[in-house]
Amino acid sequence: MQQVSYPRRRFAELLSMSESELDATEQAALDQLGEAKVRYSSADLSRYRELTRRYPPQIAHRFQLFLNFKGGTGKTSLSVSYAHRIAEMGHRVLIVDLDSQAHATKCLGYDGEALDETLYDVLVHKRPIHEVKIETPLTQLHLLPSSLRMATIDLQLMPMSSRELRLKKALAEINGDYDLIVMDAPPAFGLMNLNAIVSAQDLFVPVLPDFLSFHGLKLLFETIDDVAEDLDHELDRIFVVINQFNPTTTIARSAREALESHFSEYLLPSVIRQCTKFAQASSEGVPIFLFDPSSKGAQDIQRIIDATLLPRGGEG
Ligand SMILES: Nc1ncnc2c1ncn2[C@@H]1O[C@H](COP(=O)(O)OP(=O)(O)O)[C@@H](O)[C@H]1O
Ligand SMILES: [Mg+2]
Predict the structure, then answer these.
(1) Atom of ligand 1 nearest to the CA of 300
(2) Ligand 1, residues at Cβ distance < 6 Å
(3) Which domain holds residue 44?
């Protein structure tokens, strides 16, 4: 991921300050902060938060999974922007790339094939996550990367004891290092995704507003019911998120109505609109909140965060 560099106004916003409050802070702490700057880094963000004691309100510790067995629904685009944004807000986030296509790894600017170790080594060789994870230039965001080697993971896991629990056990060891663990699932049904479901408390299901996606959801919910029964794992919360919504097409509007009537219990009222910035941002390996924080995509992700982030103690 490229070095984070915020212009002054945006930096003040991230600290929930006006620019004049930022001026005053810098004046008052000249000896510690030095002269006012034009651009700020992610390390500055942490330093200023410490100095001003402006921390975000604490959030509940959660394991979250972005899942849909269908490809191209936005799992990677949404999970990467969501995780990056929550880290930017000041929380400690680990994003786990579960997909052998390693798109989440790429969206953050890394090449899985060039890395010595990935999630594969964690699952197959029991390498500790804290030794395999990558620290990104956004101090609070860490990545557990993937690579093409993950394509054989189901075969590797098959003969292992407690093969459905390998990921959950590995993640248990880093419990406490992060506020949020966000997993980006592959578009397949198999052992890897079974591992992912039993590791998750919250499920985000991005769907496209068309009827093929609508039918795919039925299989997904059946699988979740099976997991609940066979592996004794209940999810706490499920959010169906409509992605790439374009209100000018009839098909999108009627698919939304169909989702509203069949999945009202799970459907988030706000949608992610179609936004070309997602494709541009990921091709440059930059999360959308750095690429264009005022884009429709960034605004819509923020709305999803505001609607779903649990305060500490709010776990129920
Ligand atoms: N809201 C959106 N608007 C426009 N394009 C999007 C949006 N969300 C995702 N895309 C694009 O759709 C494609 C598939 O998205 P991706 O996140 O890779 O899906 P998945 O991980 O489910 O396979 C990518 O090219 C991505 O840039
Ligand atoms: Mg993906």
Answers:
(1) 1
(2) 71-77, 103, 187, 243-244, 272, 274-276, 278-279, 282, 297
(3) 6-52
Query: Which ligand 1 atom sits nearest the alpha carbon of residue 279?
Result: 27
My answer on whether 181 and 99 are in the same domain is: yes
Q: Are residues 97 and 45 in the same domain?
A: no
Mutation pick for ligand 1 pocket among 271, 274, 278, 286 (CB with most ligand atoms within 8 Å): 278
Query: Based on the structure, what is the number of domains in the chain?
Result: 2
Rounded-to-integer distance, Cα 65 and Cα 192, Å: 12
3-state helix, strand, coil in the chain (%, to 5): 45, 15, 40
Q: How many helices (H) and strands (E) does the chain have?
A: 16, 9
Token code pair at residue 222:
């059946």
Shared-domain flag, residues 46 and 70: no
Per-position pLDDT tens, the chain of length 316: 777 889 999 999 999 999 999 999 998 888 887 777 889 998 899 889 989 988 899 999 999 999 999 999 999 999 999 999 999 999 999 999 999 999 999 999 999 999 999 999 999 999 999 999 999 999 999 999 999 999 999 999 999 989 999 999 999 999 789 999 999 999 998 999 999 999 999 999 999 998 778 778 988 999 999 998 999 999 999 999 999 999 999 999 999 999 999 999 999 999 999 999 999 998 888 899 999 999 999 999 999 999 999 999 877 5
CATH code for position 112: 3.40.50.300
